[in-house]
Amino acid sequence: MTDTENGWPIDTRFPSGKLGLFFDEEVQRLIDSFAYCFKVKITIFSARMEEMVVGLQNPGSAFCQLIQKKLRYRYRCCRQDKLMCERCEQKDEVIIYNCYGGLSEIVVPIKIEEKLVGYGMLGQFRTSRNIPDVIIQDWVKAGFASEELLKTYEAQPLFDKPAVDNMLRLFSMLIAFIVTREYVRIRRPSIAEKVIHWLDEHIAEPLSLNDAAAAVKYSRSTVSHEIKRQLGMNFKKICILKKIQRFESLIAADPALSIQEAAAMVGYEDPFYFSRLYKKVRLSAPSSYVNSTRKQTHDLGS
Length: 302
Known about the structure:
Largest sheet: 5 strands, antiparallel
Number of domains: 2
Number of helices: 13
Strand order of the largest sheet: 5-4-8-7-6
Helix content: 40-55%
CATH topology of the largest domain: Beta-Lactamase
Strand content: 5-15%
Structural class: alpha+beta
Distance between the termini: 41 Å
Shape: globular
């Protein structure tokens, strides 16, 4: 179970290993060994951007945790992860990029029989000695001492281009090894997965537990129990979270959409009510996500 804040997962993704693919326990050991040797963070996502495996040796850098907590930038991390995985799928190739915080990350597609089934993300290392000016400005503006920010940034491993190239080569070989040894396999969906699929297909509609139970052909009590057991949240919270995730996907796909338009597309006609729900879950207003998405889209296009 992930840590929670006000009853919501801080990560706001479904708990590791519960959805999508099946990973043999050997995958965790391989990921942990790689993360330990290079002092990097590794995350395996399903094709639907659900966290499947996280390297326990490095669950996340102190620098990332610092700006996520004090600047409330977690939503930017989640959005950028999703955007880069989508770009990896579109280009059908490895993506190497610098995140908004100035750390470098790599996304490698995971395929089984030429079908994309997930992504391997390797990151939170430095290829630059400097923190982006905008982060320093936001930090100082928030009233924090710059020394703490600089110290945690410099604690991240610094790699030159040959080191990054070799690390990428080894990581790609590790992903290929995991696939060829059949440490990752597609399995039959659980009750919770069937419900999630139904929610995805009916995201703009009023979502009820009775309708979901009827759709997957199980009793209301069984569906309620399995949702809580497998995902750690009740049906209502899952519905809200899925709608928020779809809202973010719509904005990422078309940053010109207004909050009201995107909220209506996921079933919320009252944008003020939606904004309250969004802020409760993401700990920031939807306008922050929209403005950040528009800015990044502009920066990437310039």
